[in-house]
Amino acid sequence: MIGRLYARWMDRWETELANRDTNRTGRPFEWGLDWLELTSPDGDRGAFEAFAAWSAERIARSEEFFRHVAPEDARLESGGAGAGGTLTFTSTIPSPHPENNVVHAEYFPAERAEGRAVVVIPQWNADFESHLGLCRLLNRFGLSALRLSPAYHHKRMPRELTRADYHVSANLGRTVQATRQSVLDARACLDWLEGAATRGWASWGQAWARASPCSRRPMSRACARRRSIMSR
Q1: Each residue of 107-134: pLDDT tens digit?
Q2: Which site among 12, 132, 147, 209 is 20 to 30 Å from 59 CA-CA?
Q3: Are residues 37 and 84 in the same domain?
Q4: Does a structural domain hold residue 164?
Q5: Is there a single domain that holds both residue 81 and residue 190?
Q6: Distance (Å, rounded) from C-alpha 49 to C-alpha 70?
Q7: Domain membership of residue 84 as a residue range
Q8: Residue 148 in contact with residue 137, Cβ under 8 Å?
Q9: Quick one: pLDDT at residue 13?
Q10: Secondary element (H or E) of residue 89
Q11: Counting beta carbons within 10 angstroms of the beta carbon of residue 127, is it exposed (0 to 12), middle (13 to 18) or buried (19 or more)?
């Protein structure tokens, strides 16, 4: 009973939110095989079969599909919304839109983070101010935060758009590529946070390793690696 009531309330709420915007653009359905480097001369039936086969293969090799490379040109620029500046680097997945190929993330370092940091990813079509307040709140609890702008959002949005329509759209191939791009960008942000923390605490040496929160909490991959480095 409660579940059905909640479902109806959620449906009404989501419908109200969806109808609130007046800048939506209707776009025709497209398979978007060109975004996946696929071709099909057989119309919709052939496109469906090509897309289904491609999807099944990527699901079977999902670890490889979402494998990323740490950014080599990451730099922290002064200014921006974050107290620590704005992190930028080249996205692993290129797109036809130059603006989208440069990743932007607002950095909010906490004074007593002790290795604790999170990547904050706004929901689809969120505006630039979204989740900045959350990052400042996390700082108050001793957590550094890096607010990522997903693909086609904020400064990464092409000029012809007023919404992040290219991230989730009626073009399936483009939607898949944009989603993968955002995942890889988020993983690259985690790499940067790990490196920044290691560089920032290198002078603490053994004292940091003994006082590390890693010794008192379940260790993430990044935290475990940093503890190993500091213990040498």
Answers
A1: 999 988 888 899 999 999 899 998 999 9
A2: 147
A3: no
A4: yes
A5: yes
A6: 34
A7: 70-201
A8: no
A9: 86
A10: strand 85-90
A11: exposed
Residue 146 has a pLDDT of 95
Asked if residues 157 and 164 have their Cβ atoms less than 8 Å apart, the reply is: yes
CB proximity list for 209: less than 8 A, separation 6 or greater: 227, 230, 231
CA 75 to chain centre: 17
Cβ atoms of residues 167 and 175 within 8 Å: yes
Beta-sheet strand order (sheet of 117-120)? 75-77, 85-90, 102-108, 144-148, 117-120
Per residue in 147-182, pLDDT tens?
A: 999 999 999 999 999 899 999 999 999 999 999 999
Q: Are residues 41 and 154 in the same domain?
A: no
Please state the domain count of the chain.
2
List of the chain residues with pLDDT < 50: 201-232
Length of the chain: 232
pLDDT score at 208: 26
Asked if 142 contacts 110 with a C-beta cutoff of 8 angstroms, the reply is yes
Question: Based on the number of CB atoms within 10 Å of its own CB, is 50 exposed (0-12), middle (13-18) or buried (19 or more)?
Answer: middle
Alpha-carbon gap, residue 130 to 156, rounded angstroms: 15
